[in-house]
Each structure stands twice: as C-alpha cells, then as structure tokens.
Write a structure and sequence with these properties.
Strand content: 15-25%
Bound molecules: D-gluconic acid, magnesium ion
Mean pLDDT: 95
Number of strands: 18
Radius of gyration: 20 Å
Structural class: alpha/beta
CATH superfamily of the largest domain: Enolase-like C-terminal domain
CATH class of the largest domain: Alpha Beta
CATH architecture of the largest domain: Alpha-Beta Barrel
C-alpha cells in the first residue's frame, strides 16, 4: 500500500489546527494532527517542504520504519516542530493501518483494558465561588474528576481564567501580538488553599481534584504548595515546576506526598526519562501530537508502567479532535492509564470540520468501533475557516520580569 499524496491543511474553525491527510494508492487515507499552538505554520512548512517528499512511494504499513526515518534519519532529533510533524504522520499511518485491517486502533494496540476512560473536566472562575459553581455544573453531569483554577485577587488576569466571558485563553484569537498577564507567587499562595478547602467542604471527598500551576514555581515553593494542599487529597498537581532540569523534581518529591503530573510540553521519552525512572512523578501528561504520535506514546506508557507512573494525556482545545481520538484509542488500551484531560470535543465550528467516534457519558468516554482512528476531516468545510495568526499569552512578574508560562 503505497503513499501517493500527503496534504497539509491549516484551518481555523474556532482556533488553528494543522491537519495532515496521507492518501494511499488503494484510496485509503489517514488523518493526523500536527498543531503546535502559536507556531502552526512552522509545522506546516516542515511537513510540506521536508517530510512529504520523503513519504511518497513508501509503504504506508511501515509505521515503525517511517517513524525512525523521520527521527534518526534527519540527524536533527527532537524539538516541538519536528516531533509534531512526526506525530501527525504517525497518527495518519495508524489510521490507515486500522482502516486496512477493518479494526479500531485500540485493537491494534492490544485491545481494550477498560469499558470507557475517565475524564477530568475544567472548572475556572473569576472568584472561588464562580469556580465552585462551574464545578457543580460538571459534577451534575457525572464528572468524577475536576481541575480547579481561580483568578488571583489583586492580579489583572490569571492563566486559564478570562475576564471577557470566554472560558479559556486557548480560545482567543485575532490578537495581533501575545497578550501579557501578570504573576505573583505571593498572591497566588494567599488564595490557593481556600479554593481547595471550599471545594472539599462543598463537594465532599468522593471526587478527584486536580490543579495546574503552569510551571510558575521554584522546586521548594512547589514542595510547600504540595504540602499545603495535602489535606485536600489532590489527584495531582500539574506542572508545578518547569522541568528542563528533571532533577528539580527530587526536591518537590522530598517535601510532599501530593502526586505530581508533568509532560504536556515534552517532545520525547528523553524529556521524562529521569522523572519516570526516579519515580519523581506520578502521571505523565504527554500528547500524541507533541510527543511523536501513537508509536511514541505507546513506548512512553510502557516505560512509565515499570515505575508506577500512569498516563494522563494533555487534552487542551489546542489539540485537534484527531489527537483527542488518538488519545481515546491509547486510553482504551494502556494498562497504566490514569485520567484524560477534557475541555470538550470541539466547538460548533470545529464540529463542522472534524468528525469523531467518541461518546461522552457520566464524565467518561467510550470509543466506537470505526476502523482506524474513527475520525474524518471535511476539507471543503475547512476552507471556510482560514488560518489566523494567534498567540498564547506571555507571563511577567509585577515588576516586568518575564516569567514561565
Ligand atoms: C492544560 C494546558 C493548556 C496549555 C495550552 C497551551 O493543562 O490544558 O496547560 O491549558 O496551556 O495547551 O497551548
Ligand atoms: Mg497544563
């Protein structure tokens, strides 16, 4: 089954997505997601100019060989753009293999390990009360785990919480340049305990709670935060510290029993190797798009399972429904699956463009039996939504110092 054509489509049905369509000489095609938020055109150029010509004529069944060819074979390993390009191609090839076999991808991975997979939804708000109201909305729908984020009093704008009624900064667009948001660790510490204390008071102990710090703390501050939140029994604290230096997590681990989750910006298994091997983290949050596809995610999950680390794939709306579907298949299979982040399958606009075979019920998702990834992409509909330049915000301390986002 030879690869005949590789199409790269950048569209913006609500937000930008990079979609790869690999067409074979049998007529079977596969779809992949290569979206890197705020750097979409770099992936598109990488794919069109450097990757697509090398794929034409290859056997679409040779997923592993193509993966190695695009990773080792280019000399320049790793990096978000390279790995997103590999991720998109890899997903599309698994989609093709599944369609050719007449089987959903989770069957090719080894079959179902569970009936459905558990989600954590997002509750955010401008006040603790608002956040808890949004949490009530999710709890009433049957969600078993919720991530809580609340605006920080005294700071104008907080990560994941917008004043202008849109729920998430990820849905912003039409901004000429990156917006800037202030950060104060002191003010953050002054509010954070109340959020979790009130959530436990109102919703009791039978629901999982998570929180994303977005890499704003130093290791010792993260240790302190973990300790402060221990009474509220979090499922995990996410991205407490930026961990280019994986050793930092030894300090966090030494100071708290609050479980740690990490990995949404990682590209390869090497980025999380020490964290996993030393058992400094509990959940690995890498995404199929950014980590190099299903082939890489499978390897990472197996490696993590040796060290009691579970998977919790990134599920932000800046991944396209194709990546969410890839996670669905991985989550059905992975024996060490933990939880899946969920911010909806898509918007009204993106649902015009992407189709997927996933069913949400009671805070869990089941994956249908469609062959391959069970996704489709309407190229005509996508044409209505051309690419729009868009950026993530930048974070600064109140004195203007650039801070981790
Ligand atoms: C999450 C993430 C997102 C990211 C976004 C960046 O946990 O869902 O932190 O909110 O910030 O995906 O592009
Ligand atoms: Mg995050």
């Amino acid at each position: 089954m030879k690869i005949k054509e590789v199409r790269v489509i950048v569209s913006s049905p609500g937000r930008n997505f990079v979609t790869v369509k690999i067409i074979t000489d049998t007529g079977i095609y596969g779809l992949g997601d290569g979206t890197v938020n705020g750097r979409e055109m770099a992936v598109a150029a990488y794919l069109e100019e450097h990757v697509a010509p090398c794929l034409i004529g290859r056997n679409a069944h040779d997923i592993e060989d193509i993966w190695q060819y695009l990773y080792k074979g280019v000399y320049w390993r790793k990096g978000p753009i390279t790995m997103a390009a590999i991720g998109a191609v890899d997903m599309a090839l698994w989609d093709i293999k599944g369609k050719a076999a007449g089987l959903p991808v989770y069957q090719l991975l080894g079959g179902k390990s569970r009936k459905a997979f558990t989600l954590y939804g997002h509750a955010t708000g401008n006040t603790v009360e608002d956040t808890l109201e949004n949490m009530a909305f999710l709890v009433n729908q049957g969600f078993k785990a919720v991530r809580l984020q609340s605006a920080i009093p005294g700071l104008d704008g907080t990560y994941g919480v917008l004043g202008d009624k849109k729920n998430y900064f990820e849905l912003q667009s039409d901004r000429p340049l990156p917006p800037e948001l202030p950060w104060s660790t002191l003010k953050y510490f002054n509010m954070i305990e109340e959020l979790f204390a009130k959530a436990r008071e109102r919703f009791g102990n039978n629901i999982h709670l998570c929180h994303d710090v977005h890499s704003r703390l130093t290791p010792i501050e993260a240790g302190r935060l973990g300790k402060l939140l221990e009474p509220y029994n979090l499922l995990f604290l996410e991205d407490a510290v930026a961990a280019e230096n994986q050793e930092s997590y030894r300090i966090v681990r030494d100071h708290t029993t609050t479980p740690q989750a990490l990995g949404e910006i990682y590209n390869t298994i090497w980025d999380c190797k020490d964290l996993i091997q030393n058992q400094w983290i509990d959940y690995i949050r890498m995404a199929a798009t950014h980590a190099g596809g299903i082939t890489a995610m499978r390897r990472i999950a197996d490696f993590a399972s040796m060290y009691h680390v579970r998977t919790a794939p990134h599920g932000a709306p800046d991944l396209s429904p194709i990546c969410h579907a890839a996670h669905g298949h991985l989550n059905m299979w992975a024996p060490n699956f933990g939880v899946q982040e969920f911010v909806g399958f898509g918007t009204k606009q993106s649902n015009e463009v992407f189709k997927y075979d996933l069913k949400l019920q009671d805070g869990m998702v089941s994956v249908g039996d469609s062959p391959g990834l069970g996704v489709d992409f309407d190229e005509q509909a996508a044409k209505k939504y051309p690419y729009k330049r868009s950026y993530l915000p930048v974070s600064r301390l109140e004195d203007g110092t650039l801070w981790s986002w």
